[in-house]
Structures are given as structure tokens and as C-alpha cells.
Design goal:
About 50% of the residues lie in helices and about 15% in strands. The protein is built from 7 helices and 5 strands. It has a 5-stranded mixed beta sheet. β4 and β5 form a beta hairpin. α1 runs antiparallel to α2 and α5 packs parallel to α7. The radius of gyration is 24 Å and the shape is elongated.
Length: about 180
């Protein structure tokens, strides 16, 4: 609704600028300063509309339900036909934050992670190092960030690159599902 109104407002402001330019070209006394002011208003409303719309798409990640890392449950979940996406990150890790915002929050990745029978597990190195440490070699390698995907098509799992791309996650989830 807001997007539609903002788009309509932008179009009306652009139409006003065009109408004023046409009227001025026909000899009407229109102050020249009015045209750039209305043009700037159209630009500001249009920019705000773009960023609000873009931000609303990128809020879909809030639907992701992350569970605490439970490495001992992963084999059972995989046997039950589930795909498991493991995310180990830390608050201080810039690459982790880049992966989260730049990849895991992207609408196409969120859609894939929400695509049924995908269990999301995560742990934060900054807060849960003692819980993560026993799993070195099983589901984690020392360091951060660390992502691994398990599923019927990859029961042993696949470690993803430290610097994720949307394609890395989507491809790994599809392969793990066996599709």
C-alpha cells in the first residue's frame, strides 16, 4: 500500500515537472526555481520508495527459525529426510556479518532456507565457544565463519566457503536435499 502510494506520488511529481516545463515553454510566467524544487521532491520520494521497498524485501530473514547447534541430532535429522544448515559465527567477525547481511538475509537465500524440511542450526563463537569446541572435526573447524550443509544427498555434509555467495548456499541446499 505504502509502496503504491509512494510510486504514485513520484509519478505525480514528475508529471508536475513536465507540465511546468511545457507551460513555461509556451510562455507562461512560471518561476524557474519551482521546476528543480519539484524535481528534487520527486527524486527524494522516488529514492525513499526504492529503499523502503528494498528494505522490506530484506526483512524476510526474520522468518528464519534458528535452533541452537545440536551436532548429535544432525545424523538423525538427515535420516529423517531433513536438510540441516549449520552456521557458526561470532559477533566480532566481519566476514560473518558480511555473510549474514550480504548472503543469508537475501530474499532468494531466505526462500531456499524456508523451502521445507530445512533445519537451521547456529552457534555464536563469542558466546558459546565451550559448546562449539567439542564439535571440532565433527561439524566445525576452528575459526570463523563456518557453514556446513547436511542432507539426504550429502549425509557427511559439505563445508561452504568462508566468504559465502547466494549461489553457494542455494546450490548446497539443493544438493543436500538430493534434488
Amino acid at each position: 500500500m505504502i509502496l503504491t502510494l509512494s510510486t504514485l506520488m513520484t509519478l505525480l511529481l514528475v508529471a508536475a515537472v513536465v507540465a511546468l516545463l511545457i507551460a513555461r515553454s509556451k510562455g507562461k510566467a512560471i518561476p524557474l526555481a519551482v521546476v528543480p524544487v519539484i524535481g528534487m521532491m520527486a527524486l527524494m520520494v522516488g529514492s525513499a520508495t526504492y529503499f523502503v521497498h528494498r528494505a522490506s524485501e530484506q526483512q524476510d530473514y526474520r522468518e528464519l527459525l534458528w535452533q541452537p547447534l545440536a551436532a548429535d541430532k544432525i545424523p538423525m535429522l538427515v535420516q529423517g529426510g531433513y536438510t540441516v544448515f549449520v552456521d557458526l559465527h561470532s559477533d566480532w567477525c566481519m566476514a560473518c556479518q558480511t555473510n549474514r547481511v550480504g548472503v543469508l538475509h537475501r530474499p532468494e537465500v531466505v526462500s531456499t532456507l524456508l523451502s521445507g524440511k530445512v533445519v537451521l542450526m547456529q552457534a555464536n563463537w563469542s558466546q558459546e565457544a565451550e559448546r562449539i569446541a567439542p564439535h571440532y572435526g565433527r561439524v566445525a573447524a576452528p575459526g570463523s565463519p563456518f557453514n556446513k550443509v547436511y542432507g539426504p544427498g550429502m549425509p557427511r555434509g559439505q563445508i561452504l566457503p568462508s566468504e559465502l555467495s547466494p549461489n553457494d548456499v542455494i546450490t548446497a541446499i539443493r544438493s543436500a536435499k538430493g534434488s
